[in-house]
Amino acid sequence: MVAAKEHYYMTPEEYLEWEEKQPLKYEYMDGEVYAMTGGTLPHAELAFNFASALRNHLRVKGCKILISDAKVQVSEKGPYHYPDVIVSCDERDKKAMKFLQYPCLIVEVLSPSTEGFDRGKKFRNYRKIETLKEYVLVSSEQKLIECFLINDQGIWELYSFAENDELRLTSVDFNCPIELIYEDVLLIDETQVE
To answer: What is the pTM of this model?
Structure first.
């Protein structure tokens, strides 16, 4: 998804009330809202494949596995983001209706227009969520998945998985061939897409 900035300040409460009435989804950071625009088909396919694989694995564990229409609250003051895939196994999120607050895993599918933001400010925001154990970045241009896993000392470690590797997600005890995530996805140079 690509965000387009709207130019007016809102409190978190105003944002939540206002966004419910909008035809588009908006992320919220530092008092400003950013319209979420559509991504490419490979982007959507990667997110769907990832969520489907996790759903099959976590079905009996009582975890919520949601895709890009689900919002996550970093704190009561924001920001609010729409990850491509989000997993919460926390009881406090079981009855959530508007946003999740206690995810253990967040997945973002990268595109050239959002990669810097997903790796930078968005990841800094997500790291403020105490329950988050793993942050995953999925390339839409090559078979490459990067997993940031927080260790026992509170340091985020990077693990990369490429073609023919077995993807391992520690936060949800999940393994699969990376090819499952990229199944039926045509990888293209998104900078050439109109």
So the answer is: 0.91
